[in-house]
From TrEMBL:
Organism expressing this protein natively: Candidatus Aquicultor secundus
GO molecular function annotation: catalytic activity; iron-sulfur cluster binding; metal ion binding
Taxonomic superkingdom: Bacteria
Ranges for domain Radical SAM core: 97-335
Record InterPro entries: 4Fe4S-binding_SPASM_dom (IPR023885), Aldolase_TIM (IPR013785), Elp3/MiaA/NifB-like_rSAM (IPR006638), Radical_SAM_PqqE_MftC-like (IPR050377), rSAM (IPR007197), rSAM_sf (IPR058240)
PROSITE patterns referenced in this protein's UniProt entry, alphabetically: RADICAL_SAM
Protein name, entry field: Radical SAM core domain-containing protein
Keyword field: Iron, Iron-sulfur, Metal-binding, S-adenosyl-L-methionine
Length: 433
């Protein structure tokens, strides 16, 4: 008898202002539902009997049963949801968790390129995580290998599983990096990722990368030498980068390619894909952008829509990611950035949010005595324009970029789903029934 209906244990119902979303953490699907269906499911989740259900509503519930999203019951039923990690009720009285899953380390801000949109010493942020020639005080960069080794040791004790080296161009400090790669491996940090422009790769560097099983994220700026010269000020550089990427493929080095889209290369993306696709799986080629705010003349008007397209950041939402995003910020949560001068940040791109400095205190003391916990627990439920969106646990949020655009920690600019807050507008949904 179809007396009661409940969503299955691996399905979460999330309310929005004018619609809802069912997160099936078994399949990873996000299922969008309108306001009427949301109200019906909220009643079902409260074990209200299906006494006066319409044929249309029954058909909707039958569809969910067919999708293995829910079940009918003869009596009221308690369904305990799948959960990963410490339950929120326990976490309220438990000690703070200072585990760091991923640490971004900036060995230097120097670069061998002189990109027109990345002026040295300019702290204005126009992009997500990647290279930038941040302002720095002369002589303040950490050069002492023992100090960097101590930092890696502290991170390892915090259960750090990944270290990501960024710049500037990290391979300008190859001698230092080689020693740190060896030390990271000795400390049990099993994954190392290096952001690079790809121009300095050679046999010695490739042997080191393979020896320590590191991965590369190679930034591509165009499809020909002329575009590279206009952007970087360096001649014949695209040919060099393309040759080096072909070496990565032949040497079986793990790497991802990132095309940084801007006004000077916006018409070359298809050509760049055609050039680089033979060397890697197309799924490992991604687009990143220069963003327009607060004031940037080099962003691509052609790709402006994609910069605001939150659905492009949607992915499969498993139980681990759902539970993490419900408790922690997708970027600030259990992540740190360490600048070349030793500043500790919740994100390497959030330069205004300095928590402390490793030259003065150890990392644990900095985390305890700062706003670190506030940042890592800055979920979408804390962000005004996100907390009323039912998709909030399924999209990626770059706080550093949003803060740069709005001058507000909880601001939101780059989102086409802000219309979800208006009941008279309809969104193009990922999965809709």
């Amino acid at each position: 008898m179809k007396r009661h209906f409940r969503l299955n244990a691996y399905c979460y119902l999330v309310d929005g202002l004018s619609k809802g979303c069912i997160y099936n953490v078994s399949t990873g699907d996000m299922i969008s539902i309108d306001e009427d269906k949301l109200n019906l499911l909220n009643k079902c989740e409260s074990n209200i009997p299906l006494d006066r259900i319409t044929d249309t509503e029954l058909g909707f519930l039958d569809t969910l049963v067919g999708m293995s999203v829910g079940m009918y019951y003869e009596t009221p039923m308690y369904v305990e949801r799948f959960y990963v990690g410490q339950h929120p009720a326990v976490e309220m009285v438990a000690p703070s968790n200072y585990a760091v899953g991923n640490a971004f380390i900036e060995l230097d801000t120097m670069c061998n390129f002189d990109c027109v949109f990345c002026k040295e010493g300019d702290n204005t942020l126009f992009r997500k995580t990647g290279c930038k020639r941040w302002a720095r005080n002369e002589g303040s960069t950490i050069r002492d290998i023992d100090q960097w080794k101590d930092i890696l040791g502290q991170l390892a004790k915090l259960n750090c599983q990944q270290v990501t080296f960024v710049g500037g161009e990290p391979f300008l400090q190859f001698s230092l990096m080689e020693k740190l790669l060896a030390h990271a491996k000795a400390q049990g940090i099993y994954r190392v990722l290096i952001y690079t422009n790809g121009s300095l790769l050679n046999d010695e560097i490739l042997e080191c990368i393979k020896k320590y099983n590191a991965e590369l994220n190679v930034q591509v700026l165009g499809s020909n030498d002329d575009t590279y010269r206009k952007i970087t000020g360096v001649s014949e550089m695209h040919s060099k980068v393309l040759d080096n990427v072909s070496l990565l493929a032949s040497d079986n080095v793990r790497y991802t390619l990132t095309f940084l889209v801007n006004r000077l290369n916006e018409n070359e993306i298809e050509d760049a894909y055609a050039l680089y696709s033979p060397f890697t799986n197309p799924n490992r080629i991604r687009l990143e952008f220069l963003y327009p705010l607060p004031h940037n003349d080099f962003y691509s008007t052609k790709f402006l829509g994609l910069m605001y397209d939150k659905t492009s950041s949607f992915g499969k939402v498993d139980v681990n990611s759902f539970c993490h995003h419900a408790k922690y910020h997708n970027c600030y949560g259990h992540q740190l950035g360490i600048t070349a001068e030793g500043d500790i940040l919740p994100c390497i791109m959030s330069r205004k949010l300095v928590l402390g400095n490793v030259r003065k205190n150890d990392i644990v003391s900095i985390l305890k005595d700062s706003d670190y916990e506030q940042y890592q627990k800055l979920t979408k439920d804390e962000i005004d324009k996100c907390k009323q969106c039912s998709y909030r646990y399924g999209c990626f949020d770059c706080r550093a970029l949003e803060m740069s655009a709005t001058d507000y920690l909880k601001g939101l600019e780059y989102c086409n789903l802000k219309s979800a807050l208006r009941s008279d507008e309809v969104l193009e949904d990922l999965v809709s029934i």
